[in-house]
Amino acid sequence: MNSENKQKIEERIMDLSLIGSILFMIVEGIMAYITHSHSILMDCVFDVTDLVMIGPFLFLVPLLYRPVTERRPYGFAQVESLFLVIKYTVLLVITIQLIIDSVQTILDGGHSVNAGAIAIFEFVIFLGCVALYLLLSYFSKRYESMTIHAELYAWKLDIIGSLGVSLAFALEVILRKTSAAWFGPYIDPIVAIVMALFLIREPIHMIFVNLKSLVLFAPNQEIMDKIRAIAEQSMSTSSYTIQFLDVIQTGRKTWVEIYIDSPNDIITLKTLNRIRDEIRDELRKSFDQIYVEIIPDLPE
Predict the structure, then answer these.
(1) How is this protein positioned relative to the membrane (predicted)?
(2) Distance separating alpha carbons of residues 121 and 290, to the nearest angstrom
(3) Which are the contacts of 277, defined by CB distance < 8 A and separation ≥ 6?
(4) What is the model's pLDDT at position 64?
């Protein structure tokens, strides 16, 4: 698939995600105001954050497909990493604040909400999230970038969160008819805390991953081993050996520089081009935008 088609798919997915976020943000904001539910408020805040971040990214998408230049040797790939660091940092801060607020509510004795209305509302939201997730997944089958993956993950969490909240408040309705009715006021803040703890892992992980990309650290050992294995496989028919492997991964772009040595000091461009093309074609099956260079390892 060429870059133009990838860009169109990514823009379509981001547009659909933007429209979905706006719709859910509006209805959840209204419902959170009416019911004073912390759980719905948390859903709404996540949608607002996602909405604020999607808008600027729509302008960034075309830049990510521009070729690298001498002025910008990494293109705009690092801007994507910076964008994701900001997005997940905001989500992390909001999540921590909501946990603090919910704990305070529990310490203050909890608060009662219209559990039946919230259960029905969240189930409707759950169905809407499922429909949108399936639509986005359909388009992402042809192409899925790091950012598209992040959007799909966010909608997947919305699905799980909405269903969980719906079931929790349905349980509260049942408990009201039992001796455990006293527990009802605590369900809303407890559900909000459970949701927050469930959601907090991904922002922390993605912040570290994208910070590594920003400072141009090498990717994890699993990726390095995979690239080395593919390179060694392509070189097995020649006399060249790998002396050093330099890999930089930032945003959706990956640069691979393979420093080689030849026992007879003879290196031909034809052979190098063949090996490079084989390695690049194989790596393209696993990496989005890959650049491969084979460099003779010259003595100091």
Answers:
(1) Multi-pass membrane protein
(2) 45
(3) none
(4) 65
**166 confidence band (pLDDT: 50, 70, 90):** confident
Contact indicator for 196, 43 with CB cutoff of 8 Å: no
Residue 167's identity, in one-letter code, is: L
More confident residue, 230 or 188: 230
The 3-state DSSP class for residue 177 equals: coil
Contacts of 185 (CB under 8 A, 6+ apart): 109, 110, 111, 112
Nearby residues of 150 by Cβ (< 8 Å), 6 or more positions away: 84, 87, 206
Cα torsion 232, 236, 240, 243 to 10°: value is 20
- CB of 290 closer than 8 Å to CB of 280: yes
Cα–Cα nearest to 133, from 270, 13, 12:
13
Residue 290 has pLDDT above 80, yes or no: yes
Question: How many residues are present in the chain?
Answer: 300
Query: Which of 32-41, 42-51, 171-180, 182-191 shows the lowest per-residue confidence on average (mean pLDDT)?
Result: 42-51
Amino acid identity, residue 247? V
- CATH number for the region 221-296 comes to 3.30.70.1350
Question: Which candidate, 197, 194, 202, 204, places its Cα nearest to that of 163?
Answer: 194
What confidence tier does 126 reach under pLDDT thresholds 50, 70, 90? very high
Same fold, 3-214 and 221-296: no
Nearest C-alpha neighbor of 276 from the set 293, 262, 259, 289: 293
- In words, the CATH class of domain 3-214 is mainly alpha
- Contact at 8 Å (CB) between 115 and 173? yes
Instruction: Inform me whether the pLDDT recorded for 1 exceeds 60.
Output: no
Rounded to whole angstroms, how far apart are CA atoms 229 and 252?
21
Secondary structure class of 217 (helix, strand, coil):
coil
- Is a pLDDT exceeding 80 seen at residue 270? yes
Nearest 5 degrees, angle CA 204-CA 291-CA 251?
20
Which residue type is seen at 6?
A: K
- The model's pTM is 0.65
